[in-house]
Amino acid sequence: MSQQTLDLVQRWLDEIVIDLNLCPFAARPRRQDKIRIALCPSDDTEAIMSVLASEIGHLNTNIATETTLLVLENGFDDFIDYLDLVAECEDWLADKGYEGIYQIASFHPAYQFAGTLAQDRENFTNRAPYPILHLLREAELTRVIDQYPDTDSIPQRNIDLLNNMPADEFEQRFCPFIHTKKPGN
Q1: For 15-52, what is each residue's pLDDT tens digit?
Q2: How many Å apart are CA 60 and CA 21, to the nearest integer?
Q3: Under the phi-then-psi rule, with left for phi > 0, alpha for psi from -120 to 50, and beta for the rest, what region is 79?
Q4: Alpha-carbon gap, residue 104 to 137, rounded angstroms
Q5: For the chain, what are the domain ranges?
Q6: How many angstroms separate the CA atoms of 144 and 142, rounded?
Q7: Residues 6 or more apart from 164 whose CB is under 8 A from it?
Q8: Angle formed by the axes of helices 3-12 and 167-178, to 10°?
Q9: At 51, which helix (H) or strand (E)?
Q10: What's the predicted TM-score (pTM) here?
Q11: Which of 59, 68, 112, 131 is most buried (most C-beta within 10 Å)?
């Protein structure tokens, strides 16, 4: 994995996802080194599917790894193309019998929720420096959700947090991850 890519994704995880508590379930496994970050340098769908299969295999055999961030270092800059890839990966999970065992959460530099404008801050809750397929064990997700008092409030809490953040703080936090060129480009 490109060390620059790894460093940037780790900083995003720490400084955005965890420091802002956008995902209240991320801090514990990060502290315990249970989040795997894997890189797929190819922009070829078949190669990505092969790495996805390998990472699911890793999760199947390594219970100490709670979750994997599969970083797509090259390609899939177009958000619609990326969503098509996510759908293909979800279909692969279902075809291989992993539906209900694993799920994919998605992050992308141009993430945009339906009905929003590209610059709307709520989109930044799912923006990352690279396209990322977040592979989650559903049993672990269910366990942490059962322990959290009100998971339904998380998205609105995140939207409110970003909407109420002063503009200078927002720019300072997000620009290093979203508005910069990728390392090596």
Answers
A1: 999 999 999 999 999 999 999 999 999 999 999 999 99
A2: 28
A3: alpha
A4: 9
A5: 3-178
A6: 6
A7: none
A8: 150
A9: helix 45-61
A10: 0.93
A11: 131
